Amino acid sequence: MIRSLDLPGGTNVSRETLERLEAFAALVEKWTPKINLIAKSTIDDIWDRHIRDSAQIFQLAPQNFDHWADFGSGGGFPAIVVAALSLETKPDAQFTLIESDQRKSVFLRTAIRELGLNATVHAKRIDAVPNLSADVISARALAPLAQLIEFSHPHLREGGVCLFPKGQSADGEIRDAERYWRFEITKTPSITEKTAQILSINGLKRA
């Protein structure tokens, strides 16, 4: 059975894209016992906890992006999901995944190859990667907001946006980040977790 993403705004996703996401979920389930891509307790709920949770981030991206970078890509959330969704609406967009763990990088490259995505993987630390000049930067469960902004600032093109999902600690992290940075921020409630939200950040400048 092909599941639905059931995203806000009546977003339509083709059967081909849903099948690609189902194939990705199967890959994650297959590899997780070996390299712990996601918490084993969430495997049975992978579609809502990980696939839909990542897809909602794609909805918040500007329509005219060409290059999306994802930091700490781990098990491919949101990077692989948004790259799969992009094939339908922006087939020429390029995705760059940064993951320093070598085993997870092998998994990401396998997923990219098997799903036919326009993406590359850098198996390096973020600070070892040359300027990416990305239109969009995402990171899921990687670091506090101030650190994410520090990571992103050298790699974000002027006018670009950062999309960071955050939980209950979001407001405190925002206050801490404002000690070091100036930025514009929009908060969007998560559709998969009541206490979570996605932070859309642009106009980054050091305080």
What characteristics describe this protein?
single chain; 207 residues; Rossmann fold
What's the number of domains? 1
CATH structural fold name: Rossmann fold
Helix content: 25-40%
Helix and strand succession? Answer: HHEHEHEEHEHEE
Low-confidence stretches: none
Instruction: Let me know the average pLDDT.
Output: 93
CATH C-level category: Alpha Beta
**Rg computed from alpha carbons, rounded to a whole number of angstroms:** 16 Å
**Percent of sequence in beta strands:** 15-25%
CATH superfamily: Vaccinia Virus protein VP39
Number of strands: 7
Largest sheet: 7 strands, mixed
Overall outline: globular
Strand order of the largest sheet: 3-2-1-4-5-7-6
Known CATH architecture = 3-Layer(aba) Sandwich
